[in-house]
Structures are given as structure tokens and as C-alpha cells.
Fold these 2 entries.
Entry 1:
Amino acid sequence: MSENRAPIISAEPRLPCGTAALAGVSAVSLRAKLRRLMPLHEEMRALTLAVPLLALLIVSFGVPIIALLSRAVYDPSIVNALPRTAEALQHLSAADPPGDDVFAALEADLKQDQAKGSIFEFAKSLNSRLSGARSQVLKTARLLAGGAAFSKSELVAAVPFWGEKETWSTIRGGAHGFTSFYLLSALDLRWGADGLTSVPAGEAVFLRVFARTFMVAALVTLATLALGFPLAYLISNLPPTLANLVLVLVLLPFWTSILVRTAAWTVLLQKFGLLNDALIALGIATERLELMYSRLGLVIAMTHIQLPFTLLPIYSVMRSIPPSQLRAAHSLGARPLTAFRRVYLPQALPGVMAGCLLTFILCLGYYITPALIGGASDQLISNFIANYVNVDLNWEMAAALSFMLLTFTLLLYAAFARFLGLDRFKLV
Amino acid sequence: MARSSAAEGPAGENLSSIPSALPANLVEFIEVEKTYAGHVIAVRRLDLVVRRGEFLTFLGPSGSGKTTTLNMLAGFERPTRGTIMLEGRSVDRLPPYERNIGMVFQNYALFPHMSVAENVAFPLSVRKVEKRDMSARVRRALEMVRLEAFSERRPAQLSGGQQQRVALARALVYQPSLVLMDEPLGALDKKLREHMQIELKQLHDQLGITVVYVTHDQSEALTMSDRVAVFESGALAQIGEPDALYKEPANAFVANFIGENNTLEGTIEQASKSSCVVRLRDNSRVKATPIGVMVPGDPTKLTIRPEQIRLAEPGSDEDTCLEGTVEGRIYLGDHQRLLLRLANGQELTVKIGADAGFQPGMPLRLAWSTADCRAFPASP
Amino acid sequence: MRCLKITVSAVLTATILCLGAGKAAPAADELTIMATGGAWQAAQRQAWFEPFAKKTGVKVNEQEYLGDLGKIKAMVETGNVPVDLVTVETATVLQGCDAGILQRLDYAKIADRTKFLPGTALDCGVGLDVYGDVLAYDTTVLKDPPTSVLDIFDTKRFPGKRGMRKFPAQNLEWALMADGVPTADIYKVLATPAGVDRAFKKLDTIKKDVVWWDAGAQPPQLLASHEVVMTTAWNGRIQNAVEQDNKPFAIVWKDQIVEYDMISIPKGTKNSDLAYKYLAYISEPEVAAQLGRFIPYGPVRSDATSFVPKDVLPKLPTAPDHMKSYLVGDVEFWGDQGEELVKRFNAWLAQ
């Protein structure tokens, strides 16, 4: 500092001595900043105040999610149904074919399951890992219920299913309860007889659906940005009363449920709906467009629903930029475009980032709108998750897909945070 | 009045590249008027000249039109009527970014996403100044405001006074001939504000720039300015050097706005060019110097500054003598202020030496010289 | 909002799972029945719920769902089953039976099992009615009417979008029928991988022209909004739209697939006895025939047909005129192959 040379400066109120270290503030972590501002006991007190909320979050959000996600890697149905077989398989290396002892254990297990009535559940759960297993298991159980004992070769002769390598690698995969089957399936991969392979092209779905989900989310994000940025700029420059009115108009759809909004869009978008009527009447289109059950319709409806999410953070940041900023830039000689690019845009950017990230992440979870407005090839990953939960009763697969979606989302967020810096996001 | 003295007239003709031949009037407002929504008048028929090199202050209460006038000069707003001439050229069609005027805003308007050095470099970089030249000029500008050690910081890491000096450096770095300042010290505390006033004035003297400064603080205006333009309800009430405004206010508004004044209401009884007799409410008579033309029977407002009132010697023959009673007393060390009530019920403040002791209820005789008491026409 | 990272339904069911909150079970003289809503549930209400309540003094509560087993599974797994009876589709009965979420029924408490049509008295479900998967169209749009359900594959004669159910059952059968497989061999062919490929290949030819529907109420809407020129549908939904909303729709019966609706008792219900009482009630031949008065679905007991009103008979899928060319859905086949085919179908849809 320069007390000697500049008495005027010394008269000024001084920041605390630690200030000099703050010069490179972006390099200093938020934690260190907090520590400086808030002594340890203060921090503890803040933490204590947050305990009820944390507890609520953990109980109502954390635990269910973990419970659900754990199903993706833990599925004890095979080991529960075949405890003896699982035990016998422990002594074998993966390469060895199962011997007579394993088959004896299998027969004992299946007989018991048949007697308990749990054979159907086992057949179903094996079937979800190995197509066609259900009828084979039930057939074997009926066979064994007759009371006769089968040797290994006799059983394989009667039900060739038990002689196949695939069958035993599947059972072995579930013998511990812990399994990578569902997570791999979520990536269109599986452990076959010869190691990790892609599933046949006819069955590969999820990578494509994930890519589609991210694609649609990106399109909607860009569309909301293109619409929301100019609108936010407009509103932030209106006189307060008018700005509030326009803001209410923007937020109006916010107050109706997403289902109602989606249903409204089906009325607008359908072949003989308002939008097509208008396009024909205005002579813009000569033929009625297929907007329902199409990617275009889906993106239009999602853009409408997401617009406030993108717009609000941008607007809130824009409103905090004083008009004198642009005036200052102009007075300093910057032409309107330069002033906008170098002064306004960098300051609005945190809002743009936050709005886009919010919309993008929310879009990844869209479910109702694609189901009602999208066509068969516009279904997003959440529709598949819902289908596995509600229709197929394969909650393990649903959990695995949820896990992958959550992972992709977190990775994306981490990448954003890493390359752009978290302090660049500004929600309020 | 010191209004529009030297080098009046069309200034544009002589404009040349030789500095000595520059016209003395940097800016001229010619019949400038600004209305909003067709009828709300912000500035009415303004004729005003800014002389090259002077420190001119626009002084007035809020809503008096001073900021609007400044904004029109900066180019942020366009006059509804009239013309503004800068360097002898009309700037009516010139956008702000082509006027080459420096401006310092009330809240500094520093760019928060740029470092101090980047802020100061901004006007140079939009002018495409070469890089090496640019950093040298930025350094010189920051040295000028004694902030060279802070060049890598962000504005948010500086104190208010430091930010203000960055804003100043940024407005001066491209050497504009004219610098506008819109209440630049308004956000600072009193002590800091007084320091900055001196610093600003020093910079002005040092650099020889022309400054137009807007404030509602009369002491700030009197301290710093070469000339002060007082605005009232969108009109220019008076323009002149600080002591002229203080000693010879042209109207009751200026008399009351600049410095402290006592106001008494009365009616003209006799009037000549140099003096008049005014009858106060209780029929007592005082002599005053008339400002403007008044005839007997006109209502008038008398103003007399507290320090120009003295206690009358018993039996002395004074121009004006009034009886009053002490109602209150404030002791201020080097002087004291007395609140008096006149026989007619009006209040009067008097500023006198600290030695004499007064008690509330004490009767006093007051006197002043005719030259110090000014009678203005009272608007009906 | 429904758009969280994980679908709300997944989180909700998980929350129910973990918290297992205890909603009070309905009192003993109340019976809660969950059906799939729409005209179908309204007809059940008039034909069965209300008369049953009147006769026994039991209060009948209604709930609606989409026919998805996930909802029942969540109830059963939390041990809190507020529903005593659920209407389900045939394929779903087998799936729920295997998954252990539906009770295996004791027919001694219901009716003589031999009096039911084959395939309508299952281990975990009793047949409610016979309905037809048919083709429907708007007579004001199609002047040249289709004559067979299989015309849905004829995009030359009938250009435009067509509605089909987003489910492999029926669609795969029709695809094979349209590809020339005789009705008797449909399930034999479909049981082979080559047969499945063949069915999907046939579906490929119209894939881009199809609008897929999920709920039974959608086909009449799709027709009414002119979103499709024709759609597969359940005959009762179309008939109701014609009779109650005066829609100009027509039904094509040729090559219909005959199916059964089922009713089941979820595992863990507290009102098992009352539920059996209801099942026994609606299985009485005269009562079973009443449904036809409100929606044109036929009874599943052959001895009930004589109680069906005469004006209703010609509207039923089982009317002689409608049974000239038809296929009976194979419940066992779908129970066995359903999961794989659904998986394959969904993968096919997504591609």
C-alpha cells in the first residue's frame, strides 16, 4: 500500500488485513472464503440450524433413492430360490461345467420352490435375465414334481435348457445377490459366454434412447434460450408495472399442472387442431403438418413448458444489471453491439448458464409430455423407466436406468462446474 | 450576472486543429427543451454555455432538470427542441459513443466482470489503441488516481472511494475534452466525500479538462466549482461564480438554496432603483435593496443572511431596527445561533459571536444594513 | 412437477416402499374395487357394483388405474393393500400370478369352474367378459370402408395415420394373419424366432404410419380428432361412442381377436371373504349377463347367454355375424412369451 505517497488513501476506511489475499478470489475455494468470514463455531451453529432440513432430505429423498438404486445392483431372487445350487457353484471355477452335485442341488431347490409356490417368481425373475427361461423352469418344476429323481444327463436330455452355457452363466451371475447385469443392460452390454459383449442389434435400445434424451434436452434448451433471452431482456428494460404484467403472462402457464399444459398442446398440435388450422388459413402450409406424435411437436410443447425455467434466472440476473452499465459503455465509446457483447453479455452469462442447466436437467426427466405428444421414436429414458416400473414389474432394470441417468446428469453437472466454474451459476 | 460573457456568438466557424484557436465555448445549449409524453416538462428553454477548461456545476434539488440536462449533453437523451453544440458542432444526431465525452456515474458503473486495469483499458480497446500504448496509458491513468497497486483486482474488492477513482481514471484515460460527473460522490460518507472533492479539484486543475458536475449538495458546488448553474423546476435560475451566487442571488430561490437565509414577507411601500421601504405584517417598516422591478403595493420577500444581522446599540440610528425575543440558543464553539421571534410572530435566525450570553425570553433589538437585505418580487 | 431426474412414480413407489405409511384399512363392510375407468368401469358400476351394494348392504368403493401391475406390486410389497379386487387383462393375470402379487383363487367359493368358457377361469383371475379387438373408422372420412381388420396394413388403399395399441399382443397376430399365416397356425408360428421376425417385418411396413395408443379411451378420441383414419380398438369403447356421443364410427369385425377381461384379488387384502362373495355374485349366470346392457361385452359363461337382452346380442363380439373369421387370443402363449415379446416390441418401437 502507499500510505506515504498518498495521504488521501490512508483516510479511507480500510478493508480487513486479509483483503489482500482475496485478490485472487477465483482461486480461493468457497470453503476458505467461508472460513474467513465465519469462524468455526459459527459454522457449527449454521449446521445445527440446518439439521431438521437435512434430516427431512435424507429421510424423504436420500433414503428412497438409495433404496431404489440399490435394486440395480442387488437382486437376491436367484440366490433365494436356489440356495443349495448357489452354494454348490461356489466350489466351481467359471470355466468348469456344473457337475452332478450342482444338478442334485438344483433339483432339491426347484422341488422346494415348487412346494412353496415360489417357483413362479423365480421363473419370472430368471426370465427377465434370460429370455425364454420362464417356460423352461416351469416345465422342469412340473417334471420334478412327479417325484422321480433325474441324473444330470437325464435332466439335460429332458430339458436341454439346463445343458446350455448361457443358463449357467446367468445363474452364476445371480448367485451372490450382487449383479452387474442390470447396469450393463442399461448400457446395452452383457456378460456373455465370451466376456463383455454388446447385445444384438435388435435388442439394443438404451444407448440410443439416452442419446435421444440428451438430444431433445439440448434442442429444448436452445429453443428456450432463443425465446427466453430476448424476452428477458425486454422485460428487464420495461417500467416495473408493465414488467410485472408481462412476467405474469410468462408465468401463467406455470400455475397450471404439466398434465393440463400437455393436454392443451395436444389440442393445439393435432392434425385438425388450432395450429394446423392457422397455418392453412394463413397460407403458410398447404398440407396439414404431422405435429402430434412427432419430434417437432414434442420439442414445441417442452419448450413452452420449460420457457419460464430458462427465462427466470436470466431475467433475475438481467434485472440486477443497472442500466448505467450500458450507458457507461456507450459513453466510453463502445458501439451498441460492442457494449452488449463486452459489458452486458458477460454479466448476464451466469443467469444464462443457470437457466440453461436447469432446463437441460429437467428435460432429462420428462415423462408425461413425450408419452402424450411424442411418437414411438420420441420416447425418452423416463418413459422406459416408467414402463419397467409400472408394466414390466422389472424394478431392477428401472433402477439401473435411473442410476445411469443420475450418473450422466451428475457427470454433466460436474463438467459444467469444472470448466465454467460454479460461481458462474446464479439462480437468484 | 456572469452569464454568457466572453466569446458569445457562433463558435463553430473558427474551429481548427490549432489549440490556441479553439473557441472558448466548449458547449452551448441553445433554446433546449425536453418534455416527456408531450406535456411533462423536464427542461424548459435552456440557454447555457460551458467554457473550455472550467469546472461547471449543475446544482438543484431533485427533479429540477439538472440530470436530464446532463444526459442530453452525454447523448443518452435527445432534446425535444433546441440544439446542443459541442466544439461548435451540433451533436443532436450524434450517438453517445461518438461524442468522445468522459462520464462518471453516481454508482460508478464499473464493469464488475473486469479487473481494474481492464475497466480502465475498455475505452482504449474500443478505440483500437495499440496494445503497448494501451497498457502504458492505463498505468499512467491508474498512477494519476494512485491505484496502480490495485490494477488486477475486481471492482467489488475495492472501497467506495477507490471505485470512484477507478471510474475517474476510466473516464479520463482517453483524454476527452469534456468530463461529465453525475453526483459522483453521493454514495460516499461525509469525510471521504470532502477528500474526494479536493482530489477532483486538483485533477481538474492539473489536467486542464472541462468538467460538468451535477450535485444537489450546495456546499459541494461552492467548494469545487468555477461556476455554478442553479436549476429550479426545469429552468436555469441563475448561473455564476460561487461568491456571486452567495452574495448577489438573482431570485428568492437562489437566495434560499445557496447558503442560509432568513425570509420575511411584506409589501412594498416606497420603491426607488437602489432602495425600497417594505411594510411587514405587523406594520413595522424595514429598508431593503430591491432586486427586479417592483412598485408600491407589490408583495415581496425579504432575505437576510443570519451572519448579517447584528444587535443594535441602544439609541443608535440604524437603517432598520426590529424588536425580537430570544426563543432558543445553540452554542457552536466559534459562534452561536439564536432563534428569535419578532413582534409580528415571524421567526429569525441570527449568527453572532460566541462570547455574549443570552437567555430565552430576553428582548433584543436587531439591525442590518440596507445593502444586505434584499427584496425579491414574491410570486403571488 | 412430474419432471424430476427420476420419474416421480418411481420415487413415489419407492417412498411408499420405505415408509410403508399406514392408511386405515377399509371397514369390514366396505369393498374396494379398482378398475381401468372410462365407459368400461361405468358399465360395471351399473351392472354389478350398485346391485351388489343394494343386495348385500356392502359399500362399494371405486378406484381407477391404468391397468399397470406396478401399482398393485407397490401395494403388495408395502403390505398395505387398500384394494380388494382389481380388473386386469388376461396376460396381466398370468404375469401377476407368477410375480406373486395376485391371490390363487379357491373356485369352491366362486362357482363351478367347468361352466366357464375355456381359458376364462384362471388360477389367479376370473373372467368378467368377452370383448373383441376390432378395427374402427369414421364413416364420414372413409367413403371406401375397410372390410377386415387386416386392412390396417393396406396403406395404398387407406393412406394416412392409423392407431394401434402400444403392445405386442394382437398386433403380432394380425401381422402374421396379414402375411398369410392361417388363423389356426398363428401361435405355432409366433412361437418360433423366425415367426416373430416375420411379424415384426410385416409391422415394419406400416411403422411410420402408426399412432400408438395406451388407454382404451384413446381410440375414439383419435378418430374424433381425425388424427387417424382408422384404429384398432376394443369394441365396447367404439359402440359407446356411437350410442352415447352419436359419433359416426363403424366397427369392422372380420378378423377380430377375441379376448377376456379378468378380475383378481391382490395378495394381502384384508377383505378376502367379501371379495369372494362379490366374485360369486357376478359369476351367477343372470348377473353376468347384465353387463351387456351397458357395454356390448358378452358373458364368459355359456349358460349366461340366454339372459342377455335380445337387442344386445347382435352387438356382441360373439354374435354369429361377427364370428365368421376371428382368432381367440392365446392366454398361455402370452403368459409364457409375453415378457420377451414386450421387450422386443419396445426395442423395435424405439429404433
Entry 2:
Amino acid sequence: MGDGKVAEATILLDAVTKRFGDYVAVEQADFAIARGEFFSMLGPSGCGKTTTLRMIAGFETPTSGRILLEGRDVSDTPPYKRDVNTVFQNYALFPHMSIFDNVAFGLRTAKVPADQVRTRVMDMLDVVRLPDMADRRPNQLSGGQQQRIALARALVNHPAALLLDEPLGALDLKLRQVMQLELKRIQRDVGITFIFVTHDQEEALTMSDRIAVMTQGRVDQIGTPTEIYHTPATPFVAGFIGTANLLPVTVVSQTGDDVTVETRLGGQCTVSSAGTTYAPGSEVTLMVRPERLVPAGAPLHGTGSGASIRAIVTSMVFQGPVVRCQVRTEAGADLVAHLGPEDDPGSFPVGSEMEMTWSHDGAYLVPEPIAADEAGVTSMEDDQTAA
Amino acid sequence: MVMAEGAAPPVVAEVRPSKGSTRPSRAGTGWGRRALTLVAIAAYIWLFLPILNIVVFTFNQPSGKYNLSWERFTLENWAEPFKDAQLTQAFWRSLVVAAVAVTVALAMGSLIAIALSRYRFTGNKLTEVFLVLPLTTPEIVLGASLYQLFLGRGVVLGQVTVVIAHIMFLVSFVAMTVKARVRGFDWTVEDAAMDLGARPMRVFWKVTFPLILPGILAAALLSFALSLDDYIVTDFTRGEFTTFPIQVNNAFRVSFPPQVNVLATLILVVTLILFTIGPLSQRRRGAST
């Protein structure tokens, strides 16, 4: 992201690498976060997102590269001298202090006068909607309330950026959804840059202005939720965000917006180029999202006719809003389609033959190849329900 | 809503657990329960009868020099607890030794406990072994080796050597006690404090220290009692310096005045007060350590 180093970026990571002995936790992280942005780092456990966050906070020092905070190199600055504050995964509230004292801690450390402390703490408690809790102890609060106090304690110091390390992980689903919207509201009201770490892609998509998708220490893609979802840069991103049907293909030719690709079995189809130029002969990955696959004859989800593929139905599961239809192609790849009632899923029992079609703009060419045995549907659905 | 004639509203049956279901019973039934109560009473008597005896005999007026059999009731002993000059001097000396030794041991032991449980460093395991040694070594061996150590260096035995000896084994107790309290401590709060702008010293005094304080207080009470009580190691390292237990034993050949009981009961009462204040104040502060 060489030219992306904006002068007014709040946080800049310049080729940051972090090694623990032989283990590379973060490799060449290089991006800028703009002022007032809600920026998420998303990826599975062990991808390096928390290590990166800790480096921004100052709890880890980069092995190489620099971290700039509002233009100043803070790579070696200890956490108590950086103008960022962290909301920890387990809240880390001070158990021996009242809620008021917890929230006031940063202000008092900065020697803010007592009357200002009082005003700012009570205002912040209003912002997180817990004005009556000032005299309580952390162990008297529920998980969701503790989390909001942790947020208040960090925000009250008006840092240049707020770092959040999977703050919603310990909450139940309903509360998590409520808190997602709350956090987004607070961020918009207060206007501070939020840097949010999560493994929950739905969460990241809901809340973020931009997302950095990470895996095994590398940043695979940085983009808006729409970009990440519709135009993933790598097969990993395609599969990690929602469900994706991936097929290895080779580019035959490109004429304007139409790219002709060929599958391993020799079948050809045309895909919308979405503005990119693909070199003939290059190996790429064809991605079709499950909501774009429809049985032949049903109305296409998208414009223009694209292609079709023959397959046998292996399962048909009612999931409420959609019917999850899994099929196996002649090449042995499993594909998943999300069918609505208008697609008449009932007429395709298990074992029957079906022709899956998608529109011209319903597929996307991911500019990286996958191995033959990775063809088919990749889904994080199972991982998410387990988490 | 119109109810059809003759139709009865549905009855919701109350679900009750049947007798003899899988709910845990309280310590058995019948004779087993009674036997347990008897054993418990016997145990309490076994534990407290000697102590009770000491307290009761503070009110005794012995006819001879030994306060060992009951003569008649008196409050005189409580009026003059410091009648025996030598005994009183030894008592104050015990208190001074305990105060100094406990203070030093608390400082050293707590820091050791924090270091051992927070950091992983070379010698971590070795230090833990060294800490356990004074607790597992027979006191006679400890005392004798200290005696040999001091004598070999030409150090005069007295109050200082006693204090040094006490510090030596008290550090172990303090470290183990504080370490047990500190285990499971969420050190992230220190990160949080640093993140909020606190430098390491402020982090220690405002966050770490208040959280380990209950452990330190528990260790303080324990080590105070251990120091006052110590006989064998003290005897080897004291030279001519006498502490309370030493004095009582030395004088026993000649007398056993009721002031011994009084002073001992004083210690007991103070300890009891401290032990009840501690948990009460914690509960009031609502701290969950």
C-alpha cells in the first residue's frame, strides 16, 4: 500500500514484522488507518491480529518496521506514553475500585483537576448508558455492563485511537448484537478512531468502515465490507467471509468486460471482469456466492446470463430464510446454494440431477489460484457456530 | 372467551421431586450423622481444651510458685500482668523481634512471590525449591546450622542473630502464602493501568499492591505467630538473649507464674480480634479477591 500513506492518518504501520523466536506472528503489516475510522482486523485465531493490536498499544515491540501515531514514531514508546487506550478482552476492570474510580483512573493519572474528572466521568457514564453505577464495584455488574465500563474507562481520556481486543467475545448472541450497534453509535458520536480486533466476520462486516483480513501473520486484503465480500483478493478472504463456492480456472481471453475462463474439465464460461485485467493463461479462482446460484429455469439473481454447471443434489436443508442446497459436480466439487421459495427447492430431491446457473455478474474472479483439492464450497459457518 | 358447559380448565400438575430422589443429602442420615457430630465435638474439645485451660488459669491464685492446680479465683493477675520483670522483658523482646523479622520477611517474601508467579526466568524452579527447604527441614537442623554459621564467622549470638534466623524461615512462609493468594491473579489489570498512562511505580502502588494486600496481611498474621512461638531455632541462635518462650522454659525449673498465662492470653485475644476484623472489613468493602 505504498501510496496509501496518508499524511493525516492516525496510525501508520510501516512494514511491521513481529517474530517470537522462529515463529513469525506478523509479517510485513503495512497499512494506514484514517482519523475517525472504524477499522477492523479480522481473521481466525493465530492470524496475528491481536499481536498487531498489542504492538499499536505498546505491549509488544516490532521486530522490524515502524509504527507511527499521528506522524510520530512510537515503535519504542511504552504504553503509558502513547495516546491510545485499550478495551481488553476480559475487561480488566480494577476489582478493588468503584466504577467511578475505575473510569477516573486515566484522568487522575494525568493529573486532571478533580471537578473536571467528576464531570467527564459522569458524562462518559451517560454515553455508555450506565449513569447509576458510579458507586458500584465491578463484581456487582453483569458482563455486558462491565464491558461498557471498560469502554468508558478508555474513552474518557479522549485518546487518538481506541483499541478493542475482541471485546464482545464473552457476551451472548443477543447482547453481542445490541453492543455492536451501541459501539457503532458511540464511535460515530465521539468521532474517535476505533481499531477493532475480531474473529467474527459478521461482526466486522456490520461495524467497520474498512476491514483488514489477516491469516497466518499476513494481511490478505484491506477494504470496505462491500469490497471484501464482493471482490475478495485471495481465496482465503473469499472463504472466510461468508460462504463461497470456489473453482480453479484458467483465463483464456478477455474482451472488455468479458473474461473467458476454462475449468479443469474443459468447460468454458464468461465472467464479468469487474474492472480488472486478467492475463491470458493465468490461473485464478472462480467464486460464486451461494445466493447467486439458482437452478436452471428459476429467475437469475443478477443480470446477464453467465454459465451453468451440472451436479447431483446431496442435501437440502431448510434453514428458515433460505434452503441450503448442497450439490456435487461431475468433477467432484461440492457447491452450496441458498435457495428461496421462488427457486422451487421442493422439486429437487436428494439424488436428483440439477443444473446450477448464475448470472454474468454473479461470479467473481479471485486473482489467486487454489489447489485442485480445494475446489468447492469453503465456509466458516461451522467454525462460527462453535465459537 | 366462552367456556363450553361442562368443560374443565386444564389442570397443570405440579412437579415435585419424589422422596429419595437424586438430590444430595446432608452428610448421611441417622446414626452416621450422630457419630459425625460426636467426632466433631470431640475434635473441638481436643483442639481447644488446652487453650481454654490457659485462659482459665489466668484467674487462678496459686499457693506456690507453680500455676498448675486450681486454688482460688482472683483478678489480681490481670491487674498486674507485668509483675515478673524477667518474664515481661522477655515478652517485649519477643514482640520486638517479631515486629522487625515480620516486616523484613513481608517485604522480601511478597516481592519473591510476585516475581515467581509473574515471570518465567532461569532459576525460577530452583528458587521455589529453596523456599520450601526451611519448611521441610527439621528445626533442630536449621538451628544447629545457623549456630555453626554464626560461630564460624565469629558473629556474637544475640538479638541480631535471632532476628536474622527468624527472617530466614519467615520469608518462606510469607512467599508461599502470598504466592497462593496471587495465583490466578489477572495480571491484565496491570496492562490496563499502564495503558491508561500509569508508570510502573504507580501501577504497583495503585493496582498491584492493593490486590495482593489481603495475602500480605494473612502472611503477616501467620509469620507474627510463628515468630513469637519459635523456640528451637531461637534457642540455637540467641546466646544470652531471651525471648518469651525461652524465658518460660528456663524459669520452669523454678516457677511458673500466672503472668505466663496472662501474657499468653493477651496474645490470643489480640490474634482473635485481628482474625475477626480481617474478613469482616473485606466483606464490607465488597472486594472479591
